[in-house]
Write a structure and sequence with these properties.
With 187 residues, the chain is an alpha/beta fold. The protein is built from four helices and twelve strands; from the N terminus they run E-E-E-E-E-H-E-E-E-E-E-E-H-E-H-H. The longest helix is centred in the C-terminal third of the chain and has 17 residues.
Length: 187
């Protein structure tokens, strides 16, 4: 056990447990990081709606958009706010429900072998410096604890169905911050 990790929980993340997870298949380890973007309602930042969505406590009547996602049971391992605040909802040892129908390098069901990180944002919009700093830090820590071979966006594992984190996500910046080989990244 690492000083940074306890049973898949990262020491420097604020913990808020989601019920939306399950065990990884026997013998399966996380070797992929999937980066997403989310805001609720779309383009609105700073509220607690994402946390409520991931914990099944979102008031479906609070905004007209929420009716379109009513009943969804989703989660991610991590969520990074616009100011860089890091939240964790699911142990990285477990399977979060973040990628949905997905495929990476010929392997189906990315949730089985990935760690999902949501950035507070909207595809097509830029992300904040603080988010990139927090993302690089948590990716580095994940890479020390798990055999991460690749980093991809939701758009790469669910092409045609998802577009996040989107064209304004700075993959070069993340690669430079981590110092990992270029072939580990989808872009």
């Amino acid at each position: 056990m690492s000083a940074l990790w306890q049973a898949g929980w990262y020491r420097f993340a604020r913990r808020l447990d989601s019920p939306n997870f399950g065990p990884r298949p026997p013998g399966m380890q996380a070797d992929l990081i999937v980066i997403h973007s989310i805001s609720l309602p779309p383009g609105v930042y700073g509220g607690d709606e994402v946390m409520r969505l991931f914990t099944n406590t979102l008031d479906w009547d609070a905004h007209p958009y929420f009716k379109a996602i009513e009943g969804m049971q989703v989660s991610a391992h991590f969520f990074i706010r616009r100011g860089g605040e890091l939240w964790q909802f699911v142990s990285c040892d477990d399977r979060a429900w973040h990628a949905g129908a997905s495929r990476w390098r010929g392997r189906e069901n990315c949730n089985d072998y990935s760690i999902g990180i949501e950035l507070e944002g909207l595809e097509g919009e830029a992300f904040e410096r603080e988010q990139y700093e927090a993302l690089a830090s948590v990716c580095a820590a994940i890479g020390q604890q798990y055999p991460i071979a690749h980093v991809a966006g939701h758009e790469h594992v669910a092409p045609g169905r998802k577009q996040d984190p989107g064209a304004k996500f700075d993959w070069a910046r993340l690669r430079a911050s981590l110092g990992w080989a270029d072939d580990r990244f989808a872009c």
